[in-house]
Amino acid sequence: MRRLYLLALLPLVTALGGCNFVVLDPTGDIAAQQRDLLVISTALMLLIIIPVMALTIFFAWKYRASNKDARYEPEWSHSTQMELVIWAAPLLIVICLGALTWMGTHLLDPYRPLDRIAAGEPVPDSVTPLDVEVVALDWKWLFIYPDQGIATVNDLVAPVGRPIRFRITSSSVMNAFYIPTLAGMIYAMPAMRTELHAVANTPVDTRGFSSNYSGAGFSGMYFRFRALDEAGFESWVAEAKASPEPLTRQAYLDLEKPSENVPARHFADVDPTLFDAILNLCVEPGKMCMHEMMAIDAKGGLGIESASNVLPLTYDKYARRGTVFGGTAGFVVGICTPEELANALALTATAPVSRASSAPVHGAGMALPAFTLPALSRPLSFLTPTRLPPDEALSGPRRPSNS
Questions:
Q1: What's the gap between Cα 351 and its chain centre?
Q2: Membrane-spanning residues where (predicted)?
Q3: Tally of CB atoms within 10 A around 131
């Protein structure tokens, strides 16, 4: 019988053999605090769960039908002492969990700059955080080091004992940036920037990944993370700077195309405005940036000046990039009543509209784009106000007869 029990436990032991307890064995102070929060919260909840489970088994055994010596009180209905224990113990645990959650929410806020490297070891005044700009691509990770002037794909390196400040965004769909041994998970979203502060306290060679499903290549969306000493980090930076590949905007557009299981790559001579262009959805040449459109809207909008903006702000990852889903660029041909627009198009069938400039609008208050149109039967109403005769002003405009 005992052998059967051991055989029944064998699949469980085999399954647990593939587990990786990296979350419970972190190398970063933030991850260590999160582990402590997880362990303490679990222990507090077990203070209720274990006694309840144990007493359930005890009462089922003690008051079984075959135990004639068990105490029998069919008229029993209330016990003040039992009510006090039943309600007081969970209430105290909920209060403790609430206090831990409140403190953890503020102290472990991913946007909060670090004030310590480890317990009892504050961040020295002479130490500046390492800035890393993170872009989630399909299906790989791009890391830009603005101060070092380098960029990498699926290869993240940081010095031990130096705070890291991540600025995170995505090129298309939402992902989740996660290095279990370093810090908690935070989402990467297009046209939005999230932040994460962390520090590696000991050398480590592990991996990070996306913990939010993002498409066909999601299962291979891993990257290598290493924490090296200062000399090792500087050596790695020098190796990356020796790369012959520059990361220009065009190189980024090529890199952004979906690909799976991408090996590590290094880039030197990185465009310093690239990350902001990715964040504002305007890497393509001539495309209006999101912050430019927001500034224009804050001043009252574009109005008629937007007629020469040939690339709309609406973001389509594959638009006008040579794919089967990419549409052609368009522009505004008229702002008028349907009848006036139809009349203008009929008159310009043999004389196409000539535009002074097709460059996108980059600010408010610009001059009206120069349009050259043949003479119309009457001026367009949006340019020249038309005064109606008294009878039409009262009864409305007359419709032309079919004759």
A1: 48
A2: 37-63, 84-104
A3: 14
